[in-house]
Amino acid sequence: MIRIFANINVDWMGKRKWFAGVSIIVLLAGLISAVGREWSEGGTSAFNLGIDFKGGTFVIAKFKDKPSIDEIRSALQEVGISDAVIQDSTDKKDEVLIKVPTLGRREECPNVDEAGRCFVKKALDSFGKEAEANLSLEEDQEARYKIVGTEIVGPVAGAQLRNQAVSATLLGLLGILFYLAYRYDWTYAAGAVIAVFHDVLTTLAFFSIFQWEINITVIAAFLTLVGYSVNDTIVIFDRIRENLTLRRGESIYKLTNDSINQTMGRTVVTNGLVFLSVLALVLFGGEVLRSFSLALLVGAVTGTYSTIAIASPIALWWQSIIGVAELKQPEKETEKLASAARQSTVRRTVVR
Amino acid sequence: MRKKRNLWVRTAISIVVTLVGFYMVFGPREGTLAESFTWEGIKKNLSENINLGLDLKGGSHLVMRVKIEDYLKALTDNYRQAAFDAAKEAGLSVTDVTEVSENGNYSITLTFSDPSHKEQIIEAVNRKVDFNNPNAPWTQTSTDTSITWSLPIQSQRALARQATEQALKIIESRINTFGVKEPTLQVIGSEDSGRIMLQMPGVEDPERVKRIVSAESKLELMKVVSPPYPSPVQTYATREEALASIGGRETLTRKVFPYTERDSTDGKPRFVVVETPAVIDGSELRDAAAVSRTGFEGDYQIVFSLKPSGAQKFGEWTERNINNYMAVRLNDEVKSIAYIKSKITDSGEITGRFTKASAEDLALTLKSGALPAPIEYQEERTVGPSLGADSIRAGVTASVGGLIFVAAFMLFYYRGAGINAVIVLLLNMLLTMAAMVFFDATLTLPGIAGLILGVGMAVDSNVLIFERIREELLAGKTIPQSVDLGFDRAFVTIIDTHITTIISAIILYMYGTGPIRGFAVTLILGLLINLFSAVYVSRTIFLWILQRRPNMQRLSI
């Protein structure tokens, strides 16, 4: 059999300060980006909210010879609109519905109210001339298309949905916290939930720094990465719990390290597969799914990282505060410490 | 022997569930089974069985308008009545009250004969009528013998915005209650234009949804002008007769409405005179439901209950009006009339000849509340997927590529056991889709995200089991022991990860709507099924191999 990372022996917990440093730097960078963008005059907002949340302009264009949605999307990208919603009109076959986000003021389209229409016109002009304002598409011989309707559109139940997602997820995490406290211990429950917060905040940091667009699909991606992160954390906690019962007399510090090392084969295989599948989605999944897949990609990395670098150290740290573990590799395993640990963390799991 | 029989049971269960899954997803709902074995037949069945959402398949696109002018007119009507009553209550004589509500002008004028009463009238009216609403104030002008309140254009806009917002909320609640999956609803044009765009995935009966959305559902309980029970209720054969009984025209406190008796033989409406304002209106409703006494189609009624505040008001009023007749008015028609036997506190019913569907729809719209004004449809068309056909194709290609890669890796890394993993992965996806068909769920992109997480955890379950079996083998256990221990130990981990995720998904389902629910549904189904496919079926396959080759020296894993 082929085995990767079969017999490694890394002192992960000894590197906890480095991990904390890395996480703090990333989160601070995200915070600076969000606050800086929000406060700087004429700058962008903390997050690049898409058309679902902000609204924009809704345009109906009628074509003599309708291009494919793909072609329209690239034409819009040419003029700098990457996040349009383009829908075929299936009963009026020669028409297409285009929604573009509210754009900042730019030189080419100075009139803010007309900016959406103006940008769409610029893009569609690459297919040919628009019909004159006073002529219909059929009457104007040279024209290829005509914009037959323009409307300002409001957000799609945006803020409400976002708040609902946040509050439902927080409630869900509360559920997770209680279940893990019941199955393991409060120290592990706290470690797992804090790791989830870390992952969500890290992903948000990336979204602010790189100004990836946040739309409704991204909310689904965030829900996914929460589940993913919790799953990864529990796998290792489960191994720690098992080792606690099998190897009485060893320090929790060492058991935590060993558990991470023992499951490293699984960690690399599962997370590697997830990472590569999501990478395929990022690279080949198309423009519309890009922010969705980017959120999953960041989530896949940080979900794995936070298990080792956040969840386990926090559980260990808390156990050191209540006096059942120590934050360093012991010189010699002492029976006293380990039995104390068992009393607090293992007592109930042994019963189950 | 027992072990062997056990294995047969396991195998039988696995095969039966797989076949049921196949039938759910690929089987025909109509037509013959034979057609289903052609490529075309499979495609047809798939598209019939699996409902795709607006983002993946498209649906209908509706533009509607809340009739703002009707809203403002109704508001002016109400205020006129209220202003008149306020002055009268204060004991001040008012000679006339007139109203303008057309062409964007809305005003109310009170005229009186005694100029010295002016300040008192203004004070009395302003105490009772909300002319100084900070969001939409009216302007007040006056002469010696008249006071005029008119609604300036800014206030009209503010009220229009309010009405649009309110209509949006009510429509949203109606279509969500009806079960339209993940529609998009947004205000278009300027915020005070009252225009709303609704896109929804293909529904079976779009006309019914349209009716539900635009149903005005204005409910009022009113006192009928009639001699009390036991005389029969006073009705009139024509509107003219009814009007004649109140002096030829409707007044501020008397209105005429058509009323079709339940047992009427000719089906022609009669007319009744009712007192306004109403005792209770639809905003006091707590719940409404369609019920049938006889169970016959076309014999449905709506029972409703009132909120505590409405119930108290209603209780007091009915106590004072025992033996009087009460009318239930819906929109512009009196639906039922009954005499008050005793004090009624919190419930009532609307009789009439409703079919099951129309009674249910009416109950639904009553519960969501009355629209601030009638709605008219302006545009209707069918649209393609909102994600765009191009992106969907790219997404599907990338996902299938990812899956093939995962399968190839599992085969390469876990050899023989990899086959096992691929089989249960495919089974997991098949059964999740089957469960979605069974629950008539709609698949949208957030749903696919839930599916992806489910598949990811399915892969993880396999990896956990296989790694564990390897560990046990390396620790020197025999092959059957290792397989047993591997499954047993990994199961502890798998059950914890799955239960944790299911708990949070259930909470998402309970507190979320639309896309959040779509995500939660596929995730919950995927995880429950994974416990079956990755643990139960996978172990069955292992047991088969072990039984066929009891003296196996090397396990291909």
Describe this structure in words.
The complex is a heterodimer of chains A (352) and B (557). Chain A has 352 residues and is α+β, with helices and mostly antiparallel strands. Chain A has two domains: 13-34 and 157-351, Multidrug efflux transporter AcrB transmembrane domain (Multidrug efflux transporter AcrB transmembrane fold, Up-down Bundle); 56-153, Alpha-Beta Plaits (2-Layer Sandwich), CATH 3.30.70.3400. Helix content of chain A is 60%, strand content 9%. Chain A has helices spanning 16-39, 51-54, 69-78, 115-124, 158-183, 186-209, 216-246, 252-262, 264-284, 290-321, 335-351, and strands at residues 48-49, 56-63, 85-88, 95-101, 145-153, 213-214. In chain A, a hairpin with a 6-residue loop joins strand 3 (85-88) and strand 4. Chain A is elongated and about 90 Å long. Mean pLDDT of chain A is 84; it is low at 333-352. Chain B has 557 residues and is α+β, with helices and mostly antiparallel strands. Chain B folds into three domains: 2-55 and 388-548, Up-down Bundle (Multidrug efflux transporter AcrB transmembrane fold); 68-152, Threonyl-tRNA Synthetase, Chain A, domain 2, CATH 3.30.980; 218-346, 2-Layer Sandwich (Gyrase A, domain 2). Chain B has helices at residues 2-26, 39-49, 54-57, 68-89, 118-128, 153-178, 206-214, 239-245, 308-320, 356-368, 389-438, 445-474, 479-511, 514-548, and strands spanning 51-52, 59-66, 96-102, 105-111, 139-142, 146-150, 184-187, 195-201, 219-223, 254-259, 270-275, 280-281, 285-292, 300-306, 325-330, 333-339, 347-354, 375-383, 442-443. A four-stranded antiparallel β-sheet of chain B has the order 7-8-2-18. A four-stranded antiparallel β-sheet of chain B has the order 3-4-6-5, covered by helices on one side. In chain B, a hairpin with a 7-residue loop joins strand 13 and strand 14. In chain B, helix 12 (445-474) packs antiparallel against helix 13 and helix 12 (445-474) packs parallel to helix 14 (514-548). Chain B starts with a helix and ends in a 9-residue tail after the last helix. The mean pLDDT of chain B is 86. The chains are: A alpha+beta (352), B alpha+beta (557). At the A-B interface, helix 3, strand 3, strand 5, helix 5 and helix 7 of A face strand 7, strand 18, helix 11, helix 12 and helix 13 of B.
